[in-house]
Amino acid sequence: YPINGRPMIDYVVEAVKDSKYIDKIMILGHPDIQLNYLENEVDTLIYSNKPFSERIKFSILKLKSPRKIIFVCSDIPLINGEIIDSFVEICDKVEADVYFPIIRKENILSKYPETKRTYFTISEGTFTGGNIAIVSPQVVLDNIDLIADLFGRRKNVLKQVRVIGITSLLKYFFGKLSLSEIEEKAEKMIKAHGKAIIYSGVEIGIDVDKKVDLVLVEDVLGRRK
């Protein structure tokens, strides 16, 4: 979507370029949406119309990075370099193979009360997931089928919880499922160390997938000018 006359991805590319920790930038686009105008803004621009998990695998193999990769969705135009850097710095203090941000519901609504998000409630509170992740490339390649499955369940919390077992599902129903239990179950599934990071940068939790969110980000970005 265009945001105030500018392609939404432009805001995200600008934020990634402003990060002091990102070495190389790759855009993996769909061939139906031409992004050639961004060729000089990033290191690599490739296209693929394959399923999500295959596109992820393709991009990792193409990048050939021995270091961790940060995935950033193209529909979170409210982020900036400072938000990305802050998340990287928090993750750098914790040893893990996969880092995924979660944001408290009250933090999002206190700043952007208009937004509509998918939330989940666990022992530590009510959260929504962020739209970036830091991962070790090999862990992703080793779990590509699981990633495809979870991506298909991404808008349904109950379907996601079912992946880690019926006991966890029952605990979730009664608000007794804890973050540490989720991490433990996930680690057994992916055979690697995963860490959910409770993060205060609420903008990474606001993806534009509804009309109300489009109106919100147009207003926020318009006022930033």
TrEMBL record:
Classification via SUPFAM superfamilies: Nucleotide-diphospho-sugar transferases
Protein name, as recorded: MobA-like NTP transferase domain-containing protein
